[in-house]
Structures are given as structure tokens and as C-alpha cells.
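[C-ALPHA CELLS]
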Amino acid sequence: MTYAVAAPPRPWVRAAGLVAAVLVVVTGGVYTVVHAVAGPRLGPEGWPQHVSIGLPLLAAGAVAVLGSMARRPWLMVAGGAAAVPICLVSIVGVPGLLPAAVVLAVGVSGLDRVSPRDWIVSTAIAMLLVGSFGYEVLHQDPAEWATPQGSAGSSNIVTLTESIVVYGAVGLALGIAIAYAHTRGRPRG
């Protein structure tokens, strides 16, 4: 009978995963800034809409950073899996595809076994992040408004209600990730 022993992860692989996760966080920040600069400045919703548009991607990167630091590869898989579809929505996110793919690859390479809890947790986190982003991007809100400086309109603005839903879903996803990262048991990866 032979026993297979998993080789310890190489330090440069973990470092690459951490750097890629940080780059996904930066991409989420860039999403937010570009939306704020290019978006309607006179819009009725103000800063909550700008923050909420980049928050799911920023949180996906934060989940991946947490997974890398806590040596929980399933969190890296969840963060990378959430980041890839979010990056595909806008040209601003395309540069984040490579770091998201690296996070996903490093996370998958660190897996040594699959438990139902790992699948459930990572799926819930990824669905909360991608679902919240999809909710605010795919939901159409035709609007027009007037100010003393002029009038404007948009066929797809992010309303305060949508922003609150995104904040709640992202907060829940981050809470689950933090709780999972601090569960007892042998860290993997």
C-alpha cells in the first residue's frame, strides 16, 4: 500500500496568489473611481452608487487576500471565481482578468481535498458577490433629473435601493469568508 503525501506549496506560488489578489482589490478600486469620474455627477443617488459598482469586485479580491493569508484555498477559489465574470462586464475590468485567473489557479492548486462545507461556503460567497453585481448592472432604471445647472438622464443608474442591496450582500459574503477563515481545523495550502 502506498501513501501519497502532498508536497508543501512553494512560497513563490503563495506570494503570486497574494499579489494577484491584491491586484483584484486594486481593480475593484479602479472600477469605483472610473464610475465616479465617468458617471453622472449630478445624479440623484450620489456617492453610494459609485461605491457599490466597484464593491463586489473589491470584495472578491479581499476574499482572495483573506484566503491567501489564512491558507484557505477555497476562499481564493471563491474570490477568483467571483472576480472573473465581474471583470468581463466592462472594459475597465479586463485588466483584472489576469490577476483573477491567477488567484483562481493558485487556489485550485492549493486544494488537497474537497469537503461539502468548502463547496457550500465558496459557492455562497461567489454567488453573493456575482449576484449583487449582476443585480445592479442588469436592472434598468430609466431616470431624468434637473438641477439649476441643467438637466440629465440615464437609462441605467444605480439607485440607493440597489446600492443597499449590494452593501448587504457584500457584507454577508465578507462575514462568511471571515468566519470560514477563522474556523478551527488544519489550514490547507
Observations:
- Residues 12-181 form one domain.
- The mean pLDDT is 84.
- The first helix runs from residue 11 to 38.
- The helical segments are 11-38, 47-69, 73-87, 97-109, 116-138, 160-181.
